[in-house]
Amino acid sequence: MINQTSNISLNVQRHHNTLVLSMKPFGRPSSEDFQKLSAMIDRAVYAIHSQDVALLVDLSELTSVSTKSAWNELLHGLKIGPEFKRIAVYGHNRWHNVMISGLSWLISPNLKVFRHKQEATDWVMA
Fold first, then answer.
1. Do residues 87 and 57 lie in contact, with contact meaning Cβ atoms separated by under 8 Å?
2. Is residue 41 exposed (0-12), middle (13-18) or buried (19+ Cβ within 10 Å)?
3. Which of 83, 85, 104, 107 could be disulfide-bonded to 77 (CB atoms 3.0-4.6 Å)?
4. Quick one: 108 exposed, middle or buried, by C-beta within 10 A (0-12, 13-18, 19+)?
5. Mean pLDDT throughout 51-60?
């Protein structure tokens, strides 16, 4: 199942016994895009009962984010982060990777940042 806002896509699939959510923001998503995304993630996590849920985040085409959007996503991450068995984030922007690594202790102990998509995919599906 694929859901999309104007600047964020969310794909939901099963991998063995794990529900895997793949999220990809691109360009400069608006605060409204992130609100819609948060609702889609909540529906996927809480409506589809699965013992193991993982999240794969592709930041490779994200150009920027507003402060308001970043703050709202951090708050949502604090709420829903513990629901995920693993969270893999990858992208090419060193600043995004450093920022997310620094916040990982708030969101989930099982959050890892990767520079390559295949490494992130392999880890989140393990």
1. yes
2. buried
3. 107
4. buried
5. 90
